Amino acid sequence: MKLRFAFLSACLAAIFVWTGCSKSTPAADDATAPLKVGFAQTGAESAWRTANTNSLRNEAAKRGIDLKFADGQSKQENQIRAVRSFIAQDVDAIVIAPIVETGWDPVLREAQRANIPVIIMDRSVQTEDESLYVAFIGSDFYEEGRMAADWLAAHAGGRTKIVELQGEPGSAAANERRKAFADAIAKHPEFKIIDSQTGNFRRAEGKTVMEAMLKTHGNDIEIVYAHNDDMALGAIQAIEEAGKTPGKDILIVSIDAIKEAVQAVADGRINCTVECNPLFGPKIYDTIEQVLAGQPVEKKMYNQDELFDATNAAAALPSRQY
Ligand code: GYE
């Protein structure tokens, strides 16, 4: 089943729709061999990430795809090394969930020279040459940040002082969620971000950062904006240990909508969580199969995300998949 893919520059002219071209090399390829896909994952920083890894693994198993999985342990250099090893193993396609946005061009060029298509998944990259990857599949993080801020503008009930728990520095998810929120809050001069620090998308760090913020700002903190649910859940623990009631004394606004957070919304401990769907295994492999078959694919594909608050969280719980 191994179809060879050629990155002839003439085939990369399209801007929005990539009109891929492929060639098969029957002499070199065994038609019955499973598709080989290399997947450079960021790491295992959050429940969202675990759901994302499982989605790609389970769907690969279902389709008989030979998935080579590399855990980047939250370091870009590990991911770059993994991509180089996928190239050396002559995989059919590479999927990267880039920890940070910048610094990818050299290794993407190596993949292109080896005629191996790259799909950028989940977090986007900043590149000088958009032809270095065939497609991006993920969520619109700017839109997520905007939805969180708009919800707050409508529901803050006079509370105005915000602390922000940022995701991994340099990641598209943290950059865009931060910018969108700041842009939206700027339209409401009553709001003020009184502190903003990274918790690296991790629950334990969300807790320690929140503990420190509570010590520094005390009762001034009225709202927490967390770039993901794991940090929000860690912050909630810190707030409870400080003798306050999350969701009431301090409003909690977050992103991801993992099941545990939607449950916390239903319980009134988180006020709102914006969905960021991690379950795109099927979409990833459909896209790879299309690319390898020489079919056109959209350059940028965004998931549709919802928002959960007290009005809809309980009803959504039974059907939450992650
Ligand atoms: O929100 C967070 C994860 O890039 C969208 O990374 C992803 C983010 C997600 O660790 O929980």
CATH class categorisation of the largest domain: Alpha Beta
CATH architectural group of the largest domain: 3-Layer(aba) Sandwich
Uncertain regions: pLDDT < 50 for 5+ in a row? 1-28
Strand content: 15-25%
Rg of Cα set:
21 Å
Biggest sheet details: 6 strands, parallel
What does the model show?
By secondary structure, the protein is of the alpha/beta class. The protein folds into two domains: 8-137 and 279-302, 3-Layer(aba) Sandwich (Rossmann fold), CATH 3.40.50; 141-276, 3-Layer(aba) Sandwich (Rossmann fold). It contains ten helices and 16 strands. The chain has helices spanning 47-63, 76-88, 105-113, 141-155, 172-186, 203-217, 229-241, 259-266, 281-292, 313-316, and strands spanning 4-5, 17-18, 22-23, 36-41, 66-71, 93-96, 118-122, 135-138, 161-166, 192-198, 223-226, 251-256, 272-275, 297-298, 300-302, 307-309. The chain starts with a strand and ends in a 6-residue tail after the last helix. The structure holds beta-D-fucofuranose (GYE). Residues 45-46, 48-49, 122-123, 173, 201, 228, 230, 255-256, 276 line the site of beta-D-fucofuranose. Residues 45-46, 48-49, 122-123, 173, 201, 228, 230, 255-256, 276 line the site of beta-D-fucofuranose (GYE). It comes from Synoicihabitans lomoniglobus. Keywords: Signal.
